[in-house]
Design goal:
By secondary structure, the chain is mainly α. It contains nine helices and no strands. The protein starts with a helix and ends with a helix.
């Protein structure tokens, strides 16, 4: 679980930097510059440490730099606020691959209910699209406090709730099927 939060923090690093600097200074240019510099420094640090970077890391960097440039040119924070939405859409597209979630499940779940795991994978893709659409709507308002609330409470809480529901449902179904198989 600690690794999940570390990865999430890493993925949201530039957004967190942007939000913190903007809330402290109320300066879009400074906040954007710090977020872009932070994203570039994060990739450079990972490369120096010899960490393997996947295409999502580079895609995120391109988004931060690209949206940061547009934000700097227009002096409009909404472009930087849209970055997490684009990431959610990209992740949602990846999650449309049939069976993507099977590799993350314990063997007993994969052996017992692979069809439910596949359905859960599609449900997660849908959740990413819904969260991304909501984030675009919130970002378009330009309200930083609303955006921060949505990013942390709504998006984060929605994922935690979805994980808990998925865990309980799969656990109940696997237990039920194993009891039925033991009786037969």
């Amino acid at each position: 679980m600690k690794d999940v939060f570390a990865r999430l923090g890493s993925d949201l690093f530039s957004a967190i930097l942007f939000l913190a600097v903007y809330l402290i200074t109320d300066n879009v240019i400074l906040a954007t510059s710090v977020a872009v510099a932070g994203a570039v420094a994060q990739v450079i640090y990972a490369r120096i440490k010899g960490q393997q970077l996947n295409y999502m890391t580079y895609a995120s960097l391109v988004l931060v730099v690209g949206l940061g440039a547009v934000t700097l040119l227009t002096n409009d924070a909404r472009f930087m606020l849209a970055k997490p939405a684009i990431a959610h859409f990209a992740i949602g597209l990846i999650m449309l691959k049939r069976g993507w979630m099977l590799r993350y499940m314990p063997p007993i779940v994969v052996e017992t209910v692979p069809e439910y795991v596949t359905a859960a994978g599609y449900a997660w893709a849908l959740l990413m699209f819904v969260i991304g659409a909501g984030m675009i709507a919130v970002a378009s308002t330009g309200d930083l406090k609303l955006w921060a609330f949505y990013l942390t409470v709504v998006a984060g809480g929605g994922k935690i709730l979805a994980f808990a529901v998925q865990y309980l449902v799969l656990r109940l179904i696997v237990s039920s099927r194993r009891r039925a198989a033991a009786r037969a």
